């Protein structure tokens, strides 16, 4: 009888604690980001006068768990094959089988967040020793940062686990922090004293610190509830019971002086299932009746995970649009980003700041991002008395798009330069992406906005001093080389062993095969010519008498002689023929 009285008293205390105080996170900021101004005098006709306000989405109790991606570790912990039966903890003769190929027998991880009442995730069975129970991790990754507004609820199928830890991360799983421990014996499982949920904490640190609960880890036959709440509302209530008002709580949400922001921000949830459920036949657990033999489960099942939260928009959005697997803050105050955590392009006069709660000021402090052209910056100048209203209004009302010649869409305001393009593409650079990068030149005939306006110099490493070229694309050629890329010999030079040498100022007459004078403009022979007359170090033929100043480069390098020109070849051939005839005549005379 005393036991039942204690249960009734506990339930009454829980009811008073939950119903007589605000269970959800209080609303701190305005529900609009621009608030109509109170107009007086001449301003009555101006319908555009507004004031900025720090704003946030409403706490509408939205469940954001379906937006996340859920996974189970180890990967083979999900029941998918029909070769093993899963028997109920409360009715051992009621068993089921899993079959991933059938919709009616499929129990995938996605069933924990699909919102369908008759589906659930089911683990495999683990009939191992009691000191080595089945251990499974459930991880839920959310698409962005959220702020918890109420308890996290986990509804189990066929019994709540005997030992479990619920953790959260606010940096997408880089680090994890425990929120609450669950066990039928906290001292034995975690070496932590169990917490009495009906007793108010003594300090703020104690209210926000993780604790161990023994109220949700023991299953009875008459207890059909499978829901395990992870305390969030209780902690918020505790802050109120400690004398903290709205000013202290809301201020801590932005500057984190009490650690409240760190506690409420969430990007990931991890449920560490360490020991399956146990069932006691009566209303007494093992500590009250050592002779009571519990029934132990060999598996886990979860029907639903519910996370009540709103988007974290840093005081710069009052609307957050929830998609199938996404959540988007509709950022105001010229901010941008998944959490409105940065300023838009051209709005970097001041460093980004979050919208803040200010005690006694309904609109709070919006802290908008400013540019030299924004209307809020003009209002700031007028309010500070630095410019009169007519001078400020006469300025350019809004910034023009980035003038980057279609090679970039991003600009920055640099005090010494003004609006400057950044991240220029297509091998361009400059304040307006109007110059070509080093080793590129502007292609003639192409518009500056053409993505192919800058062409590579491609200077020849053989004939050019460097890879650079001038604005006209001409490379800096070595002596004797020519062409835009310095990849060939210029007029009056010939290629020999990867170098250009100046030819002798003679041509070969196609009739006489003799060298003749080069024309004054060095473009052609004075008589019909077939090719250049190239005199080597051997000075063959007519070149010896008429061209004593043969090419000095070739002589200095002592290279092997190139093939003689055609004229010299004919002369050699004629000399050999004459010598042959002379030797033949001498032989005939000697015989006779």
Account of the 3D structure:
With 592 residues, the protein is α+β, with helices and mostly antiparallel strands. Among the domains are: 2-26 and 59-312, Jelly Rolls, CATH 2.60.120.260; 410-455, Laminin; 500-573, no CATH class. 17% of the residues lie in helices and 27% in strands. The strands form 14 sheets. Strands 3, 6, 7, 8, 9, 10, 12, 13 and 16 form a nine-stranded mixed beta sheet that branches. The protein has a three-stranded mixed beta sheet with strand order 11-14-15, with no helix packed on it. Strands 36-35-37 form a three-stranded antiparallel beta sheet. The chain is elongated and about 115 Å long. The chain starts with a helix and ends with a helix. The relative contact order is 0.09. Mean pLDDT is 77; it is low at 1-22, 41-47, 386-399, 518-532 and 534-581.
CATH superfamily of the domain at 2-26 and 59-312: Galactose-binding domain-like
Residue share in β-strands: 25-35%
| Radius of gyration, whole Å | 44 Å
Q: What's the CATH architecture name of the domain at 2-26 and 59-312?
A: Sandwich
Uncertain ranges = 1-22, 41-47, 386-399, 518-532, 534-581
Helix content: 10-25%
Number of helices: 11
Which structural category fits the helices and strands? alpha+beta
The total beta strand count reads 37
CATH class of the domain at 2-26 and 59-312: Mainly Beta
Overall pLDDT score: 77
Distance between the termini: 162 Å
CATH T-level fold name of the domain at 2-26 and 59-312:
Jelly Rolls
Major beta sheet summary? 9 strands, mixed
Shape, per Cα inertia axes: elongated
């Amino acid at each position: 009888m005393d036991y039942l009285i204690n249960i009734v008293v506990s339930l009454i205390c829980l009811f008073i604690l939950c119903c007589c105080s605000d269970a959800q996170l209080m609303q701190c900021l305005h529900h609009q980001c621009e608030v109509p101004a109170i107009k007086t005098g001449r301003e009555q006709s101006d319908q555009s006068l507004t004031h900025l306000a720090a704003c946030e989405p409403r706490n509408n109790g939205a469940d954001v768990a379906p937006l996340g991606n859920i996974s189970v570790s180890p990967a083979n912990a999900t029941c998918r094959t029909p070769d093993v039966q899963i028997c109920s903890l409360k009715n051992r003769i009621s068993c089921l089988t899993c079959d991933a190929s059938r919709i009616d027998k499929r129990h995938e991880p996605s069933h924990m967040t699909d919102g369908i009442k008759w589906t659930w995730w089911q683990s495999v069975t683990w009939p191992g020793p009691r000191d080595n129970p089945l251990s499974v991790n459930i991880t839920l990754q959310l698409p962005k940062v959220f702020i918890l507004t109420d308890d996290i609820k986990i509804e189990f199928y066929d019994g709540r686990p005997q030992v479990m830890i619920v953790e959260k991360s606010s940096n997408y799983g880089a680090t994890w922090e425990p929120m609450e421990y669950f066990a039928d014996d906290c001292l034995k499982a975690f070496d932590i004293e169990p917490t009495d949920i009906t007793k108010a904490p003594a300090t703020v640190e104690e209210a926000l610190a993780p604790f161990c609960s023994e109220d949700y880890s023991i299953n009875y036959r008459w207890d059909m509830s499978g829901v395990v709440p992870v305390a969030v509302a209780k902690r918020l209530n505790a802050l109120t019971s400690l004398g903290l008002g709205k000013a202290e709580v809301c201020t801590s949400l932005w500057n984190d002086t009490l650690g409240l922001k760190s506690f409420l921000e969430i990007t990931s949830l991890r449920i560490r299932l360490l020991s399956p459920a146990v069932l006691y036949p009566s209303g007494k657990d093992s500590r009250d009746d050592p002779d009571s033999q519990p029934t132990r489960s060999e598996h886990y099942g979860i029907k639903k995970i519910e996370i009540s939260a709103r988007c974290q928009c840093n005081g710069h959005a009052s609307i957050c649009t929830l998609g199938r697997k996404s959540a988007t803050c509709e950022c105001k105050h010229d901010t941008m980003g998944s959490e409105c955590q940065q300023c838009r392009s051209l709005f970097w006069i001041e460093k980004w700041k979050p919208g803040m709660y200010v005690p006694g000021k309904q609109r709070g402090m919006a802290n908008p991002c400013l540019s030299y052209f924004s209307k809020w910056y003009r209002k700031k100048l007028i309010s500070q008395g630095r410019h009169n209203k007519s001078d400020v209004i006469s300025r350019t009302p809004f910034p023009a798009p980035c003038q980057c010649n279609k090679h970039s869409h991003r600009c920055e305001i640099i005090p010494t330069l003004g609006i400057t393009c950044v991240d220029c593409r297509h091998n361009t650079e400059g304040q307006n992406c109007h110059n070509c990068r080093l080793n590129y030149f502007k292609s003639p005939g192409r518009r500056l906005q053409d993505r192919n306006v800058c062409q590579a110099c491609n200077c020849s490493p053989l004939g050019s001093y460097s890879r650079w070229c001038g604005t006209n694309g001409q490379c800096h050629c070595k002596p004797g080389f020519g062409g835009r890329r310095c990849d060939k010999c210029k007029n009056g030079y010939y290629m020999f062993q990867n170098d250009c040498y100046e030819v002798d100022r003679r041509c070969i007459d196609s009739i006489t095969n003799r060298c003749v004078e080069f024309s004054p403009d060095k473009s052609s022979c004075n008589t019909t010519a077939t090719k250049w007359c190239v005199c080597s170090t051997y000075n063959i033929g007519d070149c010896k008498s008429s061209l004593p100043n043969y090419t000095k480069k070739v002589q200095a390098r002592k290279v092997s002689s190139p093939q003689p020109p055609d004229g010299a070849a004919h002369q050699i051939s004629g000399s050999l023929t004459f010598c042959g005839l002379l030797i033949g005549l001498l032989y005939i005379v000697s015989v006779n």
